[in-house]
UniProtKB/TrEMBL annotation, chain B:
<feature type="transmembrane region" description="Helical">
    <location>
        <begin position="366"/>
        <end position="383"/>
    </location>
</feature>
<dbReference type="GO" id="GO:0046872">
    <property type="term" value="F:metal ion binding"/>
</dbReference>
<dbReference type="InterPro" id="IPR041069">
    <property type="entry name" value="FeoB_Cyto"/>
</dbReference>
<feature type="binding site">
    <location>
        <begin position="124"/>
        <end position="127"/>
    </location>
    <ligand>
        <name>GTP</name>
    </ligand>
</feature>
<keyword id="KW-0175">Coiled coil</keyword>
<feature type="transmembrane region" description="Helical">
    <location>
        <begin position="739"/>
        <end position="761"/>
    </location>
</feature>
<feature type="binding site">
    <location>
        <begin position="43"/>
        <end position="47"/>
    </location>
    <ligand>
        <name>GTP</name>
    </ligand>
</feature>
<feature type="transmembrane region" description="Helical">
    <location>
        <begin position="773"/>
        <end position="792"/>
    </location>
</feature>
<keyword id="KW-0813">Transport</keyword>
<dbReference type="InterPro" id="IPR011642">
    <property type="entry name" value="Gate_dom"/>
</dbReference>
<keyword id="KW-0547">Nucleotide-binding</keyword>
<feature type="transmembrane region" description="Helical">
    <location>
        <begin position="298"/>
        <end position="320"/>
    </location>
</feature>
<dbReference type="InterPro" id="IPR006073">
    <property type="entry name" value="GTP-bd"/>
</dbReference>
<dbReference type="Pfam" id="PF17910">
    <property type="entry name" value="FeoB_Cyto"/>
</dbReference>
<keyword id="KW-0408">Iron</keyword>
<protein>
    <recommendedName>
        <fullName>Ferrous iron transport protein B</fullName>
    </recommendedName>
</protein>
<comment type="function">
    <text>Probable transporter of a GTP-driven Fe(2+) uptake system.</text>
</comment>
Length: 107, 848
């Protein structure tokens, strides 16, 4: 089972190009989701990375132009809880670092 | 209905599709009731649940697909769900979506509609959505989607009848909704082109819409090319066309085709919601308000510890109290078995009796834990259903991640007995929820270290014998050192044998809090307890039988038997001597009657021990008096008749002598038995770990099932016939002289780290789909256990420490190692979390 996943991810890595940069707004410098503090909101600009991680984030509704609010940090600061639309979800800082955002201010 | 011949019923196949947390399983249970069948999908470790229900003349088979967010092939679950839909071609697909997060459920609905299959949409947990302030209009939603929409509350069975009716109607409906539901804008031209090519060629498998296939081909990451059939040249041409269309689109649109497809689906989902849902949410959802307290940075650890403490108190501490109530039931079952089986002889018992009682004892030892399991599994079901389990993963992920595990490793660990008491079988089973393959395997391999309920009796036994003054401290050491070692081992495995395995992201939904329902909780608790009992029923009973043979074979030699026979006859003669001239001797005119008397006496003593309170004790006396009036003077030490007192005392001496003889015989039989010889053969190796052959025998038999070790120890420490005494009492009476506290520490630590039982091994084999990992899971812990036990002996001997100090030293060292490993960050990790600068981003993209 694990072998299957392994080889497939390798395949994806080879075949899909990362979509970086295309959505970036030149006016405001892009930040990463993990740099936001709890209470701050942002708009997703682009997802870095490829393969399963990227796909999972997309399936969870984290797509370019969507609004994300950082709710809180876990007691040990990692992972973080965010809100997308009506869903509360958690992701690790490593993954949040793959999400390029522009801040839209305090909510 | 019942008059219908079942075979004449039309059969219908229905698949339940939807994401995790949408309440699919609850709905599945509500639809099919108890008629369920659990198996694996062919070739993979994903569980396939199927069940049936009857609807008039229809027999409907329902298959619960794995929870997925989409139908690509990025995860095993998605691939399994997709392949099932494509290959098995269910008549109707019931798409379950969570009413309060429609925007995440609808993209899957669109994909199902695009496939060109009959879809019924279930908007589930509508009550939760309404409480949040979301008013879903099912008619408007049905109009938007063009498929039937049923509103359900699966937990309460609301909407199930309507759903069955819709399934029935949909199955008889020949018309399939057009797969064109989402407008993909600039990609539409390419879709139309590929669709046209598919229509013209013969590569499209029957039953899949060309639109879905075209989208899957353009999407790129879906392995869609493997779905094509027919001549290789045609397949290649189509795949090539899709690839070039994908590349052209990527260049002109500035985004990949697959991102575009996802974005279009999400936009359409939001439009659909706009037209069919009234959003009257005000302020914060209740769940978030609860989380402000429960997940507060400082309060979260407090609530977590309180929860763990409460689970431990209620299940283990109170559960043990409850076993004190249920134990007499099991003991009376044993006494009943003892009374119906052929009567005991003076020295040896008929085979049917000896074997029957052995089996009853083995099963009783296991059934003793059932109350604890019921409480523990109910509490865990409450934690799961309420939504708090996901929060526990959120709080603990940081720590677990450090050791190569995952936030969702928490549930398997808890089930396996992180708070001293659980079972590795449901624990290993529960690992299937972990989405990260490497962390999942690390969890599977470390879950058996947890203190399963069967380890606990051995601990309590040895602790109460050797550390009566420090019971709490030693139990604390043992119940926490397993976690310490599990974390260390997980880290060790992650950086060595599992190093090259793929990891997956920790992206997890935090579900809204629910009030668990009584039926839901009880159902889960009973299911998991039943799993445990089934293990008793099959593997443990079979192994108990094998061990019985190994313990009895080859038996005592003829002259040893003659020797014991001689001693028995001498003590019987002594009894008759003392009874000479006593009028009560008339009650035992023959040898047979004498054996009857001794058996009645033994049974009476056993039941007397078991009878609680003076009332029960008196009732027992009365019962024996009416059943065996002639034996009364021997049994009931009442009255002042000197003859009666003399008779009773003579009988006691004889019964005690018989008990001694039987114990000596049993011990000799064990020494020469097959299992005893194996244990003795291993002694030279295990001696450095402090184990003599008796302990070897107990540990060998415990591989079959941990419980067996206590059962075998029971034999080693002479369970006398008719005595339903707890092993603690028996062993305490006999064992203290043979072993030192240091030996006890060695045994307990080895036992804590020792390979999982046979049932767990089979579960490991199932969950990893690999015999190699199963063997690894046996060999590695054995080595580790022996090494630790050896270290205990060496440390204790070299530093001349007593048992308690040694275990404290070992515990302290393990804890220190844990802290060091926990604080150490691998270079790779440091590198990963370095603040991103444009220069590092690209290297990281390609490297990871």
């Amino acid at each position: 089972m694990t072998d299957m996943i392994l080889s497939e991810t390798a395949l994806e890595t080879a075949s899909i190009a990362g979509g970086r940069g295309a959505w970036q707004d030149d006016e405001t410098p892009a930040r990463r989701l993990d740099h936001l503090r709890p209470g701050e909101s942002c708009r997703v600009v682009a997802l870095l990375g490829v393969g399963a991680v990227r796909r999972r984030l997309l399936d969870m509704g984290i797509v370019p132009s969507v609004c994300v609010e950082v709710i809180r940090n876990a007691p040990l600061r990692d992972p973080i809880e965010i809100r997308v639309h009506n869903t509360f979800m958690t992701l690790r800082r490593v993954e949040a670092n793959r999400i390029e955002v522009t801040a839209v201010g305090e909510s | 209905m019942s008059s219908l011949n079942p075979s004449s019923r039309a059969r219908l196949k229905v698949a339940l599709a939807g994401q995790q947390n949408a309440g699919k399983s609850t709905l599945f249970n509500a639809l099919t009731g108890a008629r369920q069948h659990i198996a694996n999908y062919p070739g993979v470790t994903v569980e396939k649940k199927s069940g049936t229900y009857a609807d008039g003349d229809l027999k409907v088979e329902v298959v619960d697909l794995p929870g997925t967010y989409s139908l690509t092939s990025f995860s095993l679950e998605e691939r399994v769900a997709r392949d099932f839909l494509l290959r098995e071609k269910p008549d109707v697909i019931v798409n379950v979506i969570d009413a309060s997060t429609l925007e995440r459920g609808l993209p899957l609905t669109f994909q199902l509609i695009e496939m060109g299959v009959q879809v019924v949409v279930v908007v589930n947990m509508i009550d939760v959505a309404e409480r949040l302030g979301l008013k879903v209009d099912p008619e408007a939603l049905a109009a938007q989607l063009g498929v039937p929409v049923i509103v359900c509350v699966g937990r309460r069975g609301v909407g199930i009848a309507e759903l069955r009716a819709a399934v029935r109607q949909m199955a008889s409906c020949a018309h399939v909704r057009s797969p064109k539901i989402v407008d993909y804008g600039t990609l539409e031209d390419s879709i139309a082109d590929i669709e046209r090519r598919l229509e013209e060629s013969s590569v499209r498998p029957a039953g899949i819409s060309s639109r879905w296939l075209a989208l899957a081909l353009l999407d790129g990451g879906s392995e869609a090319e493997t779905l094509l059939i027919g001549p290789a040249a045609e397949r290649q041409a189509i795949a090539e066309a899709a690839r070039s269309a994908r590349e052209t689109f990527g260049l002109s649109a500035g985004t990949s085709a697959s991102d575009h497809v996802i974005a279009c689906r999400l936009r359409h989902a939001l439009d659909t919601i706009q037209a069919s849902v009234q959003d009257r949410r005000r302020g914060l959802p209740i769940s978030e308000r609860i989380d402000r307290v429960l997940l507060n940075r400082w309060l979260a650890p407090v609530f977590l510890l309180a929860t763990i403490w409460a689970v431990y108190q209620l299940s283990i501490v109170q559960g043990y109290e409850l076993t004190k109530v249920t134990w007499p039931l099991l003991a009376s079952f044993r006494n009943w078995a003892s009374s119906v089986l052929p009567a005991a002889g003076f020295l040896t018992d008929p085979f049917a009796r000896a074997f029957g009682l052995w089996m009853v004892d083995s099963v009783n030892t296991l059934l003793n834990y059932v109350p604890i399991f019921l409480i523990l599994f109910s509490l865990i079901a409450i934690l799961e259903d309420s939504g708090y389990m996901a929060r526990i993963a959120f709080i603990l992920d940081r720590i677990l991640k450090r050791f190569g595990l995952h936030g969702q490793s928490t549930l398997p660990m808890v089930l396996a007995g992180v708070f001293a008491g659980g079972c590795a079988v449901p624990g290993v089973m529960a690992t299937k929820a972990i989405p990260d393959p490497r962390a999942r395997l690390a969890t599977i391999l470390t879950v058996p270290f947890m203190n399963c309920l069967a380890k606990v009796p051995l601990y309590t036994l040895l602790i109460s014998m050797f550390f009566p003054e420090n019971k709490g401290l030693v139990l604390f050491y043992l119940s926490t050192i397993t976690v310490v070692v599990a974390l260390l081992v997980a880290k060790l495995l992650t950086v060595t044998v599992l190093r090259k395995m793929e990891t997956a992201p920790f992206v997890m939904e935090l579900p809204h809090y629910h009030l668990p329902t009584l039926t839901g909780v009880l159902r889960r608790a009973f299911d998991r307890t039943w799993l445990y009992i089934k293990k008793v029923g099959t593997i443990v009973v079979a192994v108990a039988a094998v061990i019985y043979v190994l313990l009895q074979f080859p038996g005592l030699s003829a002259d040893r038997i003659a020797y014991f026979q001689g001693r028995a006859e001498a003590s019987i003669a002594e009894f008759h001597n003392r009874m000479a001239g006593n009028p009560f001797a008339a009650a035992v005119p023959s040898q047979e009657r004498l054996i009857d008397l001794i058996n009645v006496y033994t049974a009476y003593r056993a039941e007397k021990l078991n009878a609680g309170g003076k009332g029960a004790s008196d009732a027992l006396d009365a019962a024996y008096a009416s059943r065996h009036p002639e034996f009364v003077p021997f049994l009931l030490r009442r009255g002042t008749d000197p003859n009666a007192r003399k008779a009773s005392s003579a009988l006691k001496t004889l019964a005690d002598e018989r008990k001694t003889l039987r114990r000596e015989m049993k011990e000799e039989r064990l020494t020469v038995s097959a299992l005893g010889r194996i244990g003795q053969a291993m002694e030279p190796v295990t001696r450095f770990a402090g184990f003599d052959w008796r302990i070897n025998v107990a540990l060998l038999s415990s591989f079959a099932a941990r419980e067996s070790s206590v059962a075998t120890l029971g034999v080693l420490f002479g369970s006398d016939d008719g005595e339903a005494k707890r092993l603690e009492d028996r062993m305490e009476a006999q064992g203290r002289t043979n072993y030192t506290p240091l030996t006890a520490v060695s045994v307990m630590l080895f036992f804590a780290l020792y390979p999982p039982c046979l049932a767990t091994m089979i579960m490991v084999r199932l969950q990893t789909a690999s015999t190699r990992w199963m063997l690894f899971a046996i060999v590695f812990p054995t080595m580790l256990g022996l090494a630790v036990a050896g270290t205990v002996q060496l440390t204790g001997w070299a530093l001349a420490l007593d048992g308690l100090t040694t275990i404290s030293v070992i515990y302290g060292s393990a804890l220190a190692l844990l802290v060091v490993v926990g604080l150490y960050r691998s270079p790779r990790e440091v590198w990963r979390t370095v603040r991103a600068t444009p220069a590092t981003i690209n290297t990281r993209e390609t490297a990871t």
